[in-house]
Design brief:
It is a single chain. The protein has 9 helices and 10 strands. It has 269 residues and is α/β, with parallel strands linked by helices. It has a single domain, classed as Divalent-metal-dependent TIM barrel enzymes (TIM Barrel). It has an 8-stranded parallel β-barrel with strand order 1-2-3-4-5-6-7-10, surrounded by 7 helices. A hairpin with a 5-residue loop joins β8 and β9. α4 packs parallel to α5, α5 crosses α6 and α6 runs parallel beside α7. The two termini are 15 Å apart.
């Protein structure tokens, strides 16, 4: 009988394209290159941050999808610049329209999720008002996304979603099966492990960073085995994407990618 993994999680290692933001912006690297690199490192998927797409024509998207298929890489997530919290119906509608656009792009790529942001708290508004506006935008976007079988992941990041609590509140109040959290381990400002763990019941995708905030808010090296245990024990199944935020991606990412792959293989079925 074949021995079973110690933990029996079902996690898959991925790469977040944002790790190579400078190279993509400077056009020294293409998304097709990232797909091939991820395959060479033994990863399974790409979180395809779309900011530097040359265009969104059917021809480009079809070609990128084919490249991913031929290299055994799943484009599982599309990161977009949607900012949910908008104070007027007109501004909210503009974000809903943007969600629809990127849902259609994700659908063409074969991705099952787009990830979005809360955005800054509008001037003069309370956090609770900003959450309510974000929920309204998200609900409307989720109706369309769900009709295409696409999930919307709200990322804990700057602005309204800088902390776990408002990020969770937005997702819970949206109350949609097509909404979840893109849980980022490195964006929380303090108590990184505890706050990250609090988001995991709502997680639909994961970003794993090389650093995390300690209880006093200072950054320290992230304990990946500890984080992976949290992720697996929460019942989450799916991609854990490496997102590197340093300035030496070419030198550092390959090693981190192989480390992530090895750790996940130890604990995943």
């Amino acid at each position: 009988m074949q021995a079973q993994p110690a933990a029996g999680y079902h996690l898959r290692p991925g790469l977040v394209a944002y790790s190579y933001r400078k190279q993509l912006a400077g056009k020294s690297l293409k998304y097709e290159d990232l797909i091939r690199m991820a395959a060479d490192w033994g990863l399974d998927g790409l979180d395809c941050t779309v900011y530097w797409f040359p265009d969104t024509s059917p021809q480009f998207l079809a070609s990128l999808r084919k490249t991913a298929f031929k290299n055994g890489i799943q484009i599982y997530n599309a990161g977009v610049r949607v900012q949910l919290s908008q104070p007027t119906p007109e501004l909210q509608q503009a974000q809903v329209d943007d969600i629809k656009k990127w849902v259609d792009v994700a659908d063409r790529l074969g991705a099952n999720q787009i990830r979005v942001f809360g955005g800054p708290i509008p001037k003069g508004a309370s956090e609770q008002q900003a959450i309510a506006w974000a929920v309204e935008t998200l609900k409307r976007g989720a109706e369309y996304a769900g009709s295409r079988g696409i999930t919307i992941g709200v990322e804990d990041d700057a602005g309204l979603t800088i902390a776990a609590e408002p990020t969770i509140a937005i997702v819970r109040q949206a109350d949609s099966p097509w909404v979840g959290i893109n849980a980022d381990s490195g964006n929380l400002k303090a108590d990184g492990y505890a706050k990250f763990e609090s988001m995991l019941p709502y997680a639909t995708s994961i970003h794993l960073k090389t650093e995390i905030s300690a209880s006093d808010g200072k950054k320290e090296k992230a304990d990946w085995p500890r984080l992976l245990a949290m992720i697996g024990n929460s019942g989450y199944k799916g991609y854990v994407g490496l997102e590197y935020e340093g300035n030496e991606a070419e030198a550092q990412v390959p090693g981190y990618a192989r480390e992530l792959r090895a750790l996940i293989r130890k604990v995943s079925a």
